[in-house]
TrEMBL record:
N-terminal signal peptide: none
Domain of life, per lineage: Bacteria
Originating organism: Flagellimonas aurea
Pfam families named in the record: DUF1573
Identification of the protein by name: DUF1573 domain-containing protein
Length: 158
């Protein structure tokens, strides 16, 4: 009895395998799915690219407490609108002000950066710009040599 059950089981497995393998994989592909995959892949190729004219600005030698500002100009060299979602500096003494509106492909934008002149000696600050680019963020830097104001004598001057 065990042999008969084993033989019937083997016959059933072979029959099911041969029936299910007769369908070719290429016949199971739905044309609508292929079209939507192609359009999705094409849309994924459209990304903005943020290209800065300069990525670092040197204020030179400044007096401590003297506010400074500079503008980083960039161009969207990609093929989709550039949207800046955030801009943060490495310190509270530096305040970035990015554009609020999307930048169309081929258009220019400006990132205003204000530095309050704090610190001492050589100072370098980074600004991280978060956008919908392939990398997701870009980094620009400002630097300055901050001098202390000249000390005045404590006593009477002769």
């Amino acid at each position: 009895m065990k042999r008969i059950t084993t033989i019937f089981s083997l016959i059933a497995v072979v029959a099911l395998t041969s029936v299910s393998c007769k369908d070719k994989a290429s016949q199971k592909i739905v044309a609508d799915n292929v079209e939507s995959a192609v359009s999705r892949d094409e849309a994924d190729k459209k990304v903005p690219v943020m290209t800065f004219e300069k990525t670092e600005h040197d204020f030179g030698t400044i007096q401590r407490g003297t506010p400074q500002e500079t503008v980083f100009t960039f161009t969207n060299t990609g093929n989709a609108p550039l949207i800046i979602t955030d801009a943060k500096s490495s310190c509270g003494c530096t305040v970035p002000n990015p554009p609020k509106e999307p930048i169309a492909p081929g258009e220019k934008g400006e990132l205003l950066v204000k530095f309050n002149g704090s610190g001492q000696n050589q100072v370098t600050k980074t600004i991280t710009v978060t956008a919908n680019t392939a990398k997701g963020s870009e980094i620009v830097r400002i630097k300055a040599f901050v001098q202390a104001p000249e000390a005045t004598p404590a006593g009477p001057v002769k």
